[in-house]
Amino acid sequence: xxxxxxxxxxxxxxxxxxxxxxxxxxxxxxxxxxxxxxxxxxxxxxxxxxxxxxxxxxxxxxxxxxxxxxxxxxxxxxxxxxxxxxxxxxxxxxxxxxxxxxxxxxxxxxxxxxxxxxxxxxxxxxxxxxxxxxxxxxxxxxxxxxxxxxxxxxx
Length: 155
Description:
This protein has 155 residues and is mainly β. The chain has one helix spanning 132-139, and strands at residues 5-6, 8-10, 35-38, 46-53, 61-69, 75-76, 89-90, 111-120, 143-153. A six-stranded mixed sheet has the order 1-9-8-4-5-7, with helices on one face. It has a three-stranded antiparallel sheet with strand order 2-3-6, with no helix packed on it.
């Protein structure tokens, strides 16, 4: 099912298509940037977020999988991955960890990092520790709206 609507997601830490500040990368504090969103459609029962790098030499590298977020949430604070008050479930990233892993490309060309947010008609809870591929399969046909924000990083 193709989403019938777009939602807005952005980070106040960096502009669309611009470099992600070093503190949010493996060369910095490796903490998640703040994110804000709006235009969550009526009927949404949960939200899901996937951050990935399609420019990785081994194929798309998943940095963050987060789901079972309440549809009333309008964003995530900086370092949300470490928050004990996070209302959501971490999935497994490409490092086989249940948390945020910041940009960490090999030296050379800049890579693109996409923060993709999905408004779903699926109520929580989806099972713990899903990979991005597993989450994508479970939400197929349940996406009411989606949006993305992209930043770059180069070492």
